[in-house]
């Protein structure tokens, strides 16, 4: 007992503090320490065995909890329902954009929606439509879209069309 406070209350308070801190700080490690502190508090309530064994119990339970969770999450990772949520450029792949500044020497600007983006790709004049094929950070990688009239003309010539 420390100045009238039982050991288990200190462990429970530490566990709750770590659980709240887990909500405020990004990461997934403090929750396992919180679990270890709460279990140590429960053990200290049931079996009052003194500070040295309580600390050994906390350290042991922390290691067991962290490594067990780590192994479990490596075996069964959490899969996002929207993996491109924070990758704006990745979400645009396959979309059609309008070239607003000619793509010359591999660089220009395109408009998609109400935004303009730096684009890289083959030389394309302003006013042409391009398809976004990827991104490099905030730079969109684009490729020209064959016009329907060109595709039909190639089909009637007997030469295969690029599809």
UniProtKB/TrEMBL annotation:
Membrane topology: Multi-pass membrane protein
InterPro entries attached to this UniProt entry: Membrane_assoc_protease, NA-bd_OB-fold, NfeD-like_C
Keyword Transmembrane helix: yes
Residue runs in coiled coils: none
Main location: membrane
Keywords (A to Z) from UniProt: Membrane, Transmembrane, Transmembrane helix
Protein name (Swiss-Prot/TrEMBL): NfeD family protein
Source organism of this protein record: Alteriqipengyuania abyssalis
């Amino acid at each position: 007992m420390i100045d009238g406070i039982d050991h288990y209350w200190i462990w429970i308070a530490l566990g709750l503090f770590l659980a709240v801190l887990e909500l405020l700080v990004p990461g997934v490690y403090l929750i396992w320490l919180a679990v270890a502190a709460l279990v140590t508090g429960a053990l200290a309530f049931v079996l009052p065995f003194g500070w040295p064994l309580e600390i050994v119990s906390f350290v042991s339970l922390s290691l067991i909890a962290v490594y067990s969770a780590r192994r479990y999450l490596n075996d069964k990772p959490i899969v996002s329902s929207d993996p491109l949520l924070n990758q704006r450029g990745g979400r645009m792949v396959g979309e059609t954009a309008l070239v607003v500044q000619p793509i010359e020497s591999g660089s220009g600007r395109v408009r998609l929606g109400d935004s303009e983006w730096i684009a890289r790709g083959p030389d394309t004049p302003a006013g042409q439509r391009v398809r976004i094929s990827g991104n490099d950070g905030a730079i969109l990688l684009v490729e020209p879209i064959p016009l329907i009239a060109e595709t039909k003309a190639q089909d009637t010539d007997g030469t295969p069309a690029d599809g």
